[in-house]
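Final report, closing paragraph on structural work. Over the funding period we assembled a curated collection of sequence-structure pairs, and we close with a single example.
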Amino acid sequence: MIQLKPNEQRAKIAILMLWLVTVITIISFISNIYQFFLIQEIGNGNKQQISQETLEMSDTIQQIIGGLALIIHISCGVTFIQWFRRAYFNLNQLVPNLSHTENWARDAWFVPIICFYRPYRIMKELYEETITLFIKKNISSKLYFNPVLVLAWWVFWITDNILSGIIFRIEIKAKLDTIPEILGFSIAHTVTDVLSLIAGLLVISIIKNYASQESLLYQIPHKEQEQSEIIN
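Its predicted structure, as stored:
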């Protein structure tokens, strides 16, 4: 007998963590903008108007925000993948011959090269096959697949991660002893904040839509069992 696993709680936790990512990203964006204008003032020769305490406080705040952002992003990644894998597992129970096993919904994020396209394909398949299944089983649902939305999420997410990786590698090698260098990295971090914010809001929409209709999947095993009992 087909047994699906509950996924509602995982969806709620993943969405909550994504909202926390959104909040910390907005805070980071504001902090980066503040530091940009602070450094710009120094570059314009107004260093006397800015105390050493202000500069040190700005750096400390940036470090704290960076540390919190790292913890929240990692936690968010874990909760998202838990939801994603469970959703694909349940679909695998109902739809034979999906493109991948449930483990790929987790592993695809960590395998080089594959991580650039397979998670997107699994998300796309998750939506398409679920909608097809609802149609075949005559189940009325409000689930809709917006390919532009899913593709936009993936493009922003990939771009953010690639750009963040490049910035990190350059930054650890750079001396950051000139105003233009510091301003440049400040702008770069602001850009990645914007990309992260957009990607986060898009994936929140994606999860909420799928999770709101995911419970309908649990009707299918019961319907099939009832039909089997009637035939017998």
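The longest helix spans residues 52-94. DSSP finds seven helices and no strands in the chain. We thank the funder for supporting this effort.
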